[in-house]
Design a protein that fits this description.
Largest sheet: none
Order of helices and strands: H
Oligomer: single chain
Structural class: mainly alpha
Shape: rod-shaped
């Protein structure tokens, strides 16, 4: 019985770590997408207006 509880506890910890990592990666993915869109918009504005920094 105690072996079953230990296995369940280990699986629960693994599930929590995996869930946290996936959630963090998902968050970072959205931040990356937003930054890429902002960079594209800034680049397009520079190309359209003809400004060179």
């Amino acid at each position: 019985m105690t072996i079953l509880i230990i296995i369940i506890a280990i699986l629960a910890v693994i599930a929590l770590i995996t869930g946290g990592v996936v959630h963090a990666l998902n968050f970072l993915l959205w931040i990356g997408i937003v930054l890429a869109v902002i960079a594209i918009i800034v680049w397009l504005l520079r190309v359209i207006t003809g400004r060179r920094a």
